[in-house]
# Entry
Amino acid sequence: MRTDRAGQSRMRTIRTEVAQVILGPWPIRPVLIGFIAFAIFQYSSGAAAVAQNELLVPAAWGLPVNIARGIAVGLILGLLLYVYRRITGRIELTRTGYLVIVILTGVSAGTTRYVTTPDLVDLYPGQWIFSLVRGVVTFMILLSALGVADSRLLRQIRQTDAALDLVRTQRSVVLEAEERARQSIATILHDRVQAGLVASTLQLKQLANSLKGEEAARLESVIADLENIRTQDVRSASRQLSPDLRNVTLTQALKVLASNYEPAMHTTIDVGTLEAEAHRRPPEDPLSLGAYRIVEQALLNAAAHGGATQVSVAAHHDGDDLVMTIHDDGRGIGQDPVTPGAGFAIIDAWAAAIDGTWAVDGSPTGTDVTVRLPREP
# Structure
């Protein structure tokens, strides 16, 4: 019983698909139809000349007429679509509207050929009806072929869009997971490691109080080194892993980041425009964090690969866009072949996360990384 029902359901599906191909509705393109109509008319004229054992010169002489026929068919089809949409208020065609337009287009093609060909004036009624039916069938077959091709193309486009959406989603998930991991490590450094260092330092101080002379001095030196590691290295690593951009400005966070490369590489920062833009966006908007991560990677690339000594980070408005530019005076990517790597992948991911685009422009005198994003979130 289930097999019979499955077979009946499959037959209904096949009949529906066949009806769709034959009866539509399919998208209608007046310009393309007009061009194909011209080709059909021109071919018919040439075939008629061959059938009458004449040269193809008459068909060539009829070229302007056939061009006019094709234009006329396209204009009529476009007018029919316009009238249909004005009357019904619909953009998409119903099956009834589609068939009416196809029939009227076929009739208009036959009539156009009849009017522009004096030899056809004496056609018998049967021949006249056959000519009209041939026009209707021709355009129905034509639109069916175009419709099937369109549907396949649209299906491929939808599949591609779905794949791109999946990639974007996965990229966002990866970025979020990375930030959570960074926050977790930063919390461990800020809380547990610092607390452990403080406790160890206090114990060492107690021990130092019980010692005298050179041993006490050496222990005091070790305590000072541990305190410096806690206050400088651990705190700096914690801030860079997960900058608290709600309590510090982007400029302050970037200055801390840039201090890692001094004095070998000096960085000037002017991102007040970007900060002002971030304040008017929702708190969860990734603008500030994305900008920080992009600058972080650009500074790393400039120092590690470019050997830069001067870097400038700036942001400004450019029409409806917000533009951030990181320029360095390093060797530039023009000196070495550019290969996709983690650095560019990170910049690309964060640029997409803040709804922007980015580009890198290298020359022997340096490298520019430009990120452009819309001002409206």
